Amino acid sequence: MDTLYDRANDPRAVIEADRAHVWHHLIQHKPFAPGPNQIDPRIMVEGRGLRVWDITGKEYVDAVSGGVWTVNVGYGRERIANALRDAVLKLNFWAGANGTIPGALFAETLIAKMPGMSRVYFSNSGSEANEKAFKMVRQIAHKVHGGKKWKILYRDRDYHGTTIACLSAGGQQERNALYGPFVPGFVQVPHCLEYRAGELAGEGYGERAADAIEEVILREGPDTVGALCLEPITAGGGIIVPPKGYWERVQDICRKYDILLHIDEVVCGIGRTGTWFGYQQFGIQPDIVTMAKGVASGYAAISCTVTTERVFEMFKDDTDRLGYFRDISTFGGCTGGPAAALENLAIVEEEDLLGNSARMGAKLHEKLSALMERQPLIGEVRGMGLFQGAELVADRQTREPLAEAKVQAVVADCAKQGVIIGASNRSMPGFNNTLLFAPALIATEDDLDQIVAAVEAALKRVA
């Protein structure tokens, strides 16, 4: 019997099938339409380690882990594929009202890496994981607070997903554009990017940035605010590592006003920053943690909404027939996700990929900083672990952002060289000017040298 790939031995037929029928994510399809300037959609075919090949045979170094920071352990992991196969042959699916062996064992393994956390709710995407968290907060408002404390705070520049509720909690205006009106009760707090802090920058900025959150709480009324939802490190909003003093003060504020602290680890989770989770870099204890992308490194769809036992206990109430968490995620019942995730975690542990992320991340930061000394278009380098960003500017003195078209020209130039990098785009008006780097946690120094060399060549051409 022919396999899927045996049947796809005519690249042109595949490209035309894609052109005619596939609606791709996040891109304008007009250039694919027939005409004198028609281009082909890019079809990715194979991946091994840190490298991928498209349908034309072109090889790339992948510096963004599958385009959206997902393939943390790299491509071609046979042991994950085998675990996935074994699980779905044994029992591919059962609705989440019951348990499965992969689900139970993965939850136990995950919680062991998250001191203070207790329960895992399965779904299948980061957006959905965050939706579950928002619903938990709203139900707690009714069950525990008499309908009060229903508002959810989110941060400017942070991103939490694509659904209407997640966009309501999204701090990237261009991603939100044309999708309103939004869900009421989501309230924005200021970002914490010192490079763009203006006169507030300087000593003590971290605490002042956190105090700005308290000002919003006091303005809204502490008895109306139920949760604060933040990325540990702002991802697509510009790779923003919160400054010293910020996270400690944020946690104090949440405890002071009995506000649940929800950390969105969809990007940073599973080793991206050099620890299992980004929040663990800052010594804080969240009430809710959401995760997706790196949980199974893209080998299967899985996301998790993880809570403390305190949060879970609020839903154990047999005196109220509507008191339990009345939610379902159909494909949260697939066994393939937790089975793949178990193997993924084992690989991270056995190969010390947390350590490699920290070591190679420090080297990548060093190499990008050295490039900044040679290349005036780079205004600042920032990041943690294998999660680094380089903000591009037209003028270092004024910090005028480099035009988005030029930033995207750098990305396109790198792709022509066989290196796929990312950049903030169509997210924040006037500030889509940060190059994004998140190679798989298996990256070597040679890989990093190839990535940085491509960026340098591209910057010279764009300049």
Automatic annotation (TrEMBL):
GO molecular function: pyridoxal phosphate binding; taurine-pyruvate aminotransferase activity
Membrane-crossing residue ranges in chain numbering: none
Cofactor: pyridoxal 5'-phosphate
Origin: domain of life: Bacteria
Pfam families xref list: Aminotran_3
Enzyme class: transferase
Swiss-Prot/TrEMBL keywords: Aminotransferase, Pyridoxal phosphate, Transferase
Enzyme Commission identifier(s): 2.6.1.77
Transferase keyword on record: yes
InterPro entries with a match to the protein in the record: Aminotrans_3 (IPR005814), Aminotrans_3_PPA_site (IPR049704), PyrdxlP-dep_Trfase (IPR015424), PyrdxlP-dep_Trfase_major (IPR015421), PyrdxlP-dep_Trfase_small (IPR015422)
CDD domains according to UniProt: OAT_like
Record family assignment: Belongs to the class-III pyridoxal-phosphate-dependent aminotransferase family.
Record protein name field: Adenosylmethionine-8-amino-7-oxononanoate aminotransferase
Species this chain originates from: Rubellimicrobium thermophilum DSM 16684
Lineage of source species: Bacteria, Pseudomonadati, Pseudomonadota, Alphaproteobacteria, Rhodobacterales
